[in-house]
Design brief:
14 strands, three-stranded antiparallel β-sheet, single chain, 2 domains, formyl-coa transferase, domain 3, alpha/beta, 403 residues, elongated, 15 helices, Rossmann fold
Length: 403
């Protein structure tokens, strides 16, 4: 197997929100440039409450918690790409960037000379990632896509909620998030391919297909059996027991994912006879006789409160957990030990807490280096230090309404 050629010393990424150019060093970190509309910027800046307070002017509304949650380690530049001058700035960024991410309806950016085939001529090594609701082709390609819409259309809502209740969306925008993760993996793969070929490529990533992929075993079960899946609430369709159980004062999540765990679970509950019961010997048996088993276990668990059972399960090898609210989640000893929540200094809000990098590396030490940016906070810096525009050019761009 031939070794891969080395990566360039510096890899740059840009986002235009949405289009994003990016500076990214494999030896240190990425520099992500968020290109925003000068008139209000990213829509999520206004998605609240809650908003932070401006520590310098308490009557002025700060940034939305939503915006703060997804924009750490980015720099903001405001560009009006509807002007020729603004398009020229982005063309200059493209020449220096390795990755560009955009989430416009297909064909929108071509009107401004910013489509893949157009900018590829400026930088054949560019990796251009398009994230849309339905993809670049097909009868729905030009429809806008939002998380809740795709959760409904791609089947996720159909299997989410209590069995006796209506379909519901997931508590966070899981379709948006998983699509971002698929795009991230695709960009990394494209970088590896470019290291071998020297060429960039266009990545076509959609909410619809990402959500279909994350239907996972439930989607596969339908394709294999043709049987329409149902909603199971906090239970699992294929594993029993694997659900939330009521206790005397609360609820506890328990998984007996294999026969060994089920035997241990039964021992803890004082139900040692159940694993030899013909109805419950194997997982298939337990799925078939789900209602009978769950009734027996529920009656036993309701004899004591949550704390009793949490202590009883500790260290026994059976997966279990309390159903925490956010106060308990963020005070969780493992969360604190892993230092996932980090405090950073925001230029207007002062000290704010953000969820940090969820992956640990043996060599690299990723961190929250920059707070989420103010609108256009880095415009002058990027024009001056990245594109090397002189003061006169910057002034003329401002006069033309391009920045």
């Amino acid at each position: 197997m031939q070794p891969l050629p080395p990566f360039s010393q510096k890899i740059n990424l840009a986002i235009i929100p949405s289009l994003v150019p990016c500076h990214f060093s494999f030896h240190s970190r990425a520099e992500v440039i968020k290109i925003e509309n000068p008139n209000g910027g990213d829509d999520t800046r206004a998605w609240g409450p809650p908003f932070t307070c401006n520590q310098h002017n308490l009557t002025e509304r700060g940034e939305s918690a939503y915006f703060l949650s997804v924009n750490r380690n980015k720099k903001s530049i405001t560009i009006n790409f509807r002007t020729k001058e603004g398009q020229g700035i982005i063309h200059d960024l493209v020449k220096k960037c390795d990755i560009l991410v955009e989430n416009y309806v297909p064909g929108k950016l071509e009107k401004y000379g910013l489509g893949y085939e157009q900018v590829k001529k400026l930088n054949p090594k560019l990796i251009y990632a398009s994230i849309t609701g339905y993809g670049q082709t097909g009868p729905y390609a030009n429809r806008p896509g939002y998380d809740c819409i795709i959760e409904a259309e791609a089947g996720l809502m159909h299997i989410t909620g209590e069995s006796t209740g209506p379909p519901v969306i997931v508590g966070v925008a899981v379709t948006d998030l998983t699509t971002g993760l698929y795009a991230h993996g695709a960009i990394m793969a494209a970088l590896l391919a470019r290291a071998k070929t020297g060429r960039g490529q266009h990545i076509d990533c959609s909410l619809l297909e990402s959500q279909l992929a994350t239907l996972s075993d439930i989607g596969s079960s339908y394709l294999i059996s043709g049987q329409e899946p149902r909603r199971w609430g906090a239970s699992h369709p294929m594993i029993v027991p694997y659900q939330a159980f009521p206790t005397r004062d609360s609820r506890i999540m328990i998984s007996g994912g294999n026969d060994g765990q089920f035997k241990t679970l039964c021992r803890i509950l004082g139900l040692e006879h159940l694993p030899t019961d013909i109805r419950f010997r194997s997982n298939s048996d337990r799925v078939k006789h789900r209602d009978e088993l769950i009734k027996i276990m529920t009656e036993k668990l309701q004899e004591h409160d949550n704390q009793h059972w949490l202590k009883a399960f500790e260290g026994q090898g059976v997966p279990f957990a309390p159903i925490n609210d956010f106060a308990h989640t963020f005070a969780h000893p493992q969360v604190l030990a892993r230092k996932i929540v980090q405090e950073v200094e925001h230029p207007k809000a002062g000290k704010i807490k953000l969820i940090g990098i969820p992956v640990k590396y043996s060599e690299s030490k990723p961190s929250v280096r920059l707070p989420p940016p103010l609108l256009g906070q880095h415009t002058q810096e990027i024009l001056r230090d990245v594109l090397h525009y002189d003061a006169e050019t910057v002034d003329s761009l401002a006069t033309a309404g391009a920045i």
